[in-house]
Design a protein that fits this description.
single chain; 221 residues; alpha+beta; five-stranded antiparallel sheet; 8 helices; 5 strands; 42% helix
């Protein structure tokens, strides 16, 4: 395939297919590199969604084509690289070269996907989800009734103490009750009954523990 025009129908189908698949954010370009002596670079012979870069049929290619034609760039296809338009839009680009039987580049297909809007959306999302800007110390759990809240607080109190209730000493239980009192657990109706049951203590003992917690007295063994 010496001239790009020999395969123009096939290449046109590919260009239009890619553009149709990815929509208006995706520019797809077919360049003829066989006439670079005349045009100074590759010549755009087909372009879909040219509004992305503002180019049209008859315009010339980019510096990448020149480097390949000059032989400076021998690496071949360039895939998934970042480019920028004159008006500041960011593109994810790929360039695939078409070569003849001798390995000489005679054309290329370029895909330029405008990711500017996606980057702006990403920035906006990060503004809401950046944990460095969010207070993660506040714990709030949504439940169906207040008893579920009490159950949750009792479990948190156990985690705060760091051991199951069967292995808790008097001091550990007072520590757990202090945690519950600070979280407002005793404002829940009949919370004392459930807390007594959990810690296996009497109401009298619970009130004594609460007196110690609220008075700030040192816990005695």
């Amino acid at each position: 395939m010496e001239h790009i025009n020999e395969e123009i129908d096939f290449l046109t189908s590919i260009v239009k297919g890619i553009a149709s698949q990815f929509g208006n954010y995706c520019e797809v370009v077919l360049l003829d590199l066989t006439q670079h002596e005349k045009y100074g670079s590759g010549l755009i012979v087909l372009i879909e969604n040219g509004h992305i870069t503002g180019r049209k049929v008859g315009d010339t290619g980019t510096n990448l084509g020149l480097e390949v034609l000059r032989g400076t760039d021998r690496e071949g296809d360039k895939l998934n690289y970042l480019t920028k338009t004159k008006d500041g839009r960011m593109l994810r680009s790929s360039t695939m070269y078409i070569r003849n039987s001798e390995g000489k580049p005679i054309g290329c297909i370029c895909i330029n996907f405008d990711i500017t809007s996606f980057m702006m959306i990403e920035t906006a999302i990060k503004e809401f989800t950046d944990l460095n800007k969010i207070n993660t110390d506040v714990k709030e759990v949504f439940v169906n009734n207040v008893n579920d809240v009490l159950t949750l607080l009792i479990q948190e109190a156990q985690n705060h103490v760091g051991k199951p209730v069967a292995h808790m000493s008097k001091e550990d239980k007072i520590k757990g009750i202090k945690y519950l009192d600070g979280k407002g657990a005793f404002l829940i109706q009949k919370a004392g009954d459930k807390i007594c049951e959990y810690y296996n203590i009497s109401k009298y003992t619970l009130y004594n523990y609460l007196d110690v917690v609220r008075s700030g007295e040192e816990i005695k063994s």
